[in-house]
């Protein structure tokens, strides 16, 4: 077993169970990609077992803080069982569920989503990559499922020096799946879709959108960055008269159309725009259009702390346009999935957007990732999705 010795004082974050060791904290020691290493303090005291990543700034990701634990097949099966058992207790109203959420489930770099009878995994770290076969076998045992598709094509792989990898790892068959979320049917493709196929983290926000659409009687709805129409279906289910969905991905919009049909809604209640949201909002304003509800769920605009300032301006712009298009008495559902933009900053950005639009609004609810995307208390980096539901005073 190879040992990684930290510099003096660099053990503090590990003692608080933060699961990363950065390259700059290491005094000496190295290992192969994904190899299990013993991490110890400058005094030689055991701190943790982790996976070494030779070319990543996050040089070691921690598997366990327990010296007696061995990082073997039984370890992975225990962690996977615990993660799956948690989801069972959460009583999620969907068969599309995130079963493993990386560091926050004690499995750094590993993401596993279940879509009906199909599992999709992302191996985003050298450690997860090294134990891929063990994890794949354990996943089938723990879930009783037979099909596992790999979507290791996220950009984080490059930071770990890993090439992209996609395809069936276990079992095979069609990559298209239909899940049942909040009582709706939603189709997706695990090979072609964003992330592992769908944005499971927004499940509770979509449900809230359906409920508020119904309770507030919101008729004319604008769904910006609609992807495959999750919020579109939600608004229609909530009784919206008409929903305009905007996204710059043609294939996503085609699937959104299919998802509307799949739920038996009349296509005449929908308009789909394959366009840039910012330009579309300006065009709608110029036409004098107004909406009773608007959803703004942009992609990650701040990939890192260095991008926060530029992202803040982009969030403010789109929210200002959103407020201007919102009818008095209407509801804005606005989100950010940039980890680098914290909850407080996001609220400030949205508040300035409202101010610039000359709109008086109150917060009806705060949204975050659905509970199958838990955040480790010692791992604030895991927190990324935040949202505000705002009511424009009538
Ligand atoms: N709300 C969706 C998820 C949105 S993900 C859901 O609940 O499933 C963000 C979406 O923004 C992606 O589908 C992407 O294609 C789209 N997108 C990114 N940049 C865009 C732009 N400038 N204009 C329009 N859509 C954009």
TrEMBL record:
Occurrences of domain PUA (ranges): 2-85
Protein family membership: Belongs to the methyltransferase superfamily. RlmI family.
Cellular compartments annotated: Cytoplasm
GO biological process: methylation; rRNA processing
Keywords in alphabetical order: Cytoplasm, Methyltransferase, RNA-binding, rRNA processing, S-adenosyl-L-methionine, Transferase
Record-level Gene Ontology MF annotations: methyltransferase activity; RNA binding
The encoding gene: rlmI
UniProt protein name: Ribosomal RNA large subunit methyltransferase I
Enzyme class: transferase
EC code: 2.1.1.191
Gene Ontology CC entries for this record: cytoplasm
Family annotation (PROSITE patterns): PUA (PS50890)
Entries under InterPro entries matching the protein: PUA, PUA-like_sf, PUA_sf, RlmI-like_PUA, SAM-dep_methyl-trfase, SAM-dependent_MTases_sf
Statement: the UniProt record of this protein carries the keyword Electron transport: no
């Amino acid at each position: 077993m190879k040992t990684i010795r930290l510099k003096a004082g660099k053990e503090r974050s590990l003692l608080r169970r933060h699961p990363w060791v950065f390259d700059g904290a290491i005094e000496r020691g190295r290992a192969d990609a994904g190899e299990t290493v013993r991490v110890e303090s400058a005094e030689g005291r055991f701190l943790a077992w982790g996976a070494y990543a030779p070319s990543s700034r996050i040089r070691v990701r921690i598997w366990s803080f327990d010296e007696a634990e061995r990082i073997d097949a039984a370890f992975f099966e225990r962690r996977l069982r615990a993660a799956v058992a948690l989801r069972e207790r959460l009583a999620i109203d969907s068969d599309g569920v995130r079963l493993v959420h990386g560091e926050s489930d004690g499995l750094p770099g590993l993401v596993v989503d279940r879509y009906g009878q199909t599992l999709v995994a992302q191996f985003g770290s050298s450690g997860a990559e090294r134990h891929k076969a063990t994890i794949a076998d354990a996943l089938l045992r723990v879930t009783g499922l037979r099909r596992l598709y790999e979507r290791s094509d996220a950009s984080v792989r490059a930071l770990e020096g890993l090439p992209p990898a996609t395809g069936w790892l276990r079992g095979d068959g069609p990559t298209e799946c239909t899940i049942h979320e909040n009582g709706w049917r939603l189709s997706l493709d695990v090979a072609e879709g964003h992330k592992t196929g769908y944005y499971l983290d927004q499940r509770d926000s979509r449900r809230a959108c359906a409920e508020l659409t119904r309770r507030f009687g919101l008729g004319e709805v604008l769904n910006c960055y609609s992807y495959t129409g999750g919020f579109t279906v939600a608004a229609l289910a909530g009784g919206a008269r008409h929903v305009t969905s905007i996204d710059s991905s043609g294939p996503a919009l085609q699937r959104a159309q299919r998802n509307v049909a799949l739920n038996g809604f009349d296509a005449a209640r929908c308009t789909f725009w394959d366009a840039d949201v910012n330009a579309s909002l300006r065009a709608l304003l110029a036409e004098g259009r107004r909406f009773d509800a608007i959803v703004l769920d942009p992609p990650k605009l701040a990939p890192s702390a260095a991008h926060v300032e530029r992202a803040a301006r982009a969030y403010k712009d789109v929210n200002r346009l959103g407020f201007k298009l919102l009818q008095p008495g209407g509801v804005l559902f606005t989100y950010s999935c940039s980890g680098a933009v914290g909850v407080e900053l996001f609220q400030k950005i949205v508040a300035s957007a409202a101010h610039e639009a000359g709109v008086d609004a109150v917060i009806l609810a705060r949204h975050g990732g659905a509970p199958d995307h838990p955040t480790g208390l010692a791992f604030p980096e895991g927190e990324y999705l935040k949202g505000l539901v705002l009511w424009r005073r009538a």
